Amino acid sequence: MSTTTTPGVAESPAPAKVSQDRPRRGLRANSTFNFWLFTGPFLIGLVIFVFVPIGWSIWLSFFEARFTVTPSEFVGLENYKSILTNEDFLNSLVTFTVFAAFIVPATWAMSLGLALLVNRLRFMRAFFRSVFFLPTAVSYVAAALIWKMSIFNGVRFGMANTFLGWFGIDNIAWLANPDPPWYWLVIVTVRLWLQSGFYMILFLAALQNIPRELYEAAAIDGAKPGWQTFRHITLPQLRATSTAVILLLLIAAYQAFDEFWNLLPKATWGQPPLVELYKMALGENQNYGVGSAGAVVLTLLICVVTLFQGKIMGFGRGEESK
Amino acid sequence: MTTTAPDLGKVTEPAKAKRGGVMSSTGLYIATGIAAVLFLIPFYLIVRNALMTDPEITGENWKWFPTTIQWSNFSEPFNDVTVDFARSLWNSVVVAVLHTAGILLICSMAGYGLARIPYKHANKVFYAVLATLMVPTAVTFVPSFVLVSSLGWVDSYRGLIIPGLFSGFTCFLFRQYFLGFPKELEEAARVDGLGYWGAYWRIVVPNSLNFFAAMATITFINGWNSFLWPLVIGQDPSAWTVQVALSSYMTNQTVNYHLIFMATAISILPLVFVFLFLQRWLVQGIAQTGIKG
User: Fold this and answer.
1) Interface pTM (ipTM) of the complex?
2) How many CB pairs under 8 A join A and B?
3) pTM score, two decimals?
4) A82-321: which CATH topology?
5) Which residue ranges does the record annotate as region Disordered (chain A) (predicted)?
């Protein structure tokens, strides 16, 4: 936590000392003062509400802390041992992995597909873009409510079961039991609907940055419009955007909470990491020690995944390097 | 204006050039139209259920439209005794507005400081901010709750709003934006004798309203829609935001479909209108800062 000292120390700026550093102009002379004037409020808040909780949490994770945040009993790595052998916690990591395996490729394909469609429209393009972008304004709670109460309601009047009924198919209990795991369809489609439009906008912006000379050159070389051009020009040109989108999707999936919490409130299965963390730290036991250890483990995991994926997929290497 | 984002509304050459390719114009519109209908179904369902009676919603046969539109459903969430819906709506308004105003003020100033004001340790400060981006805020809700509860801020606006104001990501986006702000404008301000403070408020901010509008829209939507933190902080129903209230409807013993969907409609519609109205700036803002090639 050495970083906390940087903003903390410099909280009291000393304009007099600074003027020795930069004596050239009056304005420059108090630039240090101005730097802290502008960034100070943010940095003080960042220290108090971001760095202190993180540090406190790391400290708590080494203590026996039930119903208290100022514990005295040091337990070493016991909390970590207990979280890493906790079956619910380990299952939640499996749940996340399955969830990510569905939602990341699905959202990538859907948002890219929508962007390709909208990009080719010549009339009513703004209308269709708005339609696909609109779910961005809806909360996960509201969407989960619509999905659970009206679309994937397990009884006959749910829209999905009504639709299946027209073809003589029996009601499906979408969310009531884990076998067969229909709940994945519900959970994945909620998020797909909510976030595709946002990533579509990113892809649209990237598509419009592709130099049209590339397509002209390809046409002269005899490339057929359609799959060939898409495979050899569009897709490679979108590489940086795709990489970033996949990274963002993965981080978002890792933090999934709202839709699981509301769609599967009483289930013992299909619980993602954050829900388990919530139950552990804020549920009946209020075990802040183990909860904090869980938070530390999850944070480390996501840092590793981010850095690893960044390395593998070349995040940060811009498209200009081509 | 200062925005350099591509105009997403204009038809680019590739779009025209590909005409008559794999997909004819008709096929293209049919595919897009089907996708659009699917995307609009949830909105349709909210409105349909909000304006129906429960027997119609739960009836044997599917009804596409209410026999008579039940406008009187509108007042039902407000008369419901199990959940204080009006209170939760008001809480959401207060939280979302102050959240947006606070973030814009604090993070934009910090972003400007980091982008434009020379200071020999500015890089170190910037890296400290970047480091916080590696730790997802959702994962830190346990330690944040620990801190907020020991400050005695549970069930209060302070607890709901203040911890969320120091967004490293928003600060980062503002920094990136201000790095691209034309220096000439600020230099002109200095010739006129304005310091950093004066130049910022009189020149930089008024010339960045597009970007501020984009950030305000996305911040407001996030503030209005956030669920995990309000759930953690709102232990008492009087501190619930509208999202927590909606969530509680789903686990209630008795389910009043028309009431629940009317409440959902009331919680969504203002946002949808704000969104449609400000969409242009939002799209520009995302295209500009979201990810650059």
Assistant:
1) 0.86
2) 340
3) 0.84
4) MetI-like fold (1.10.3720)
5) 1-23
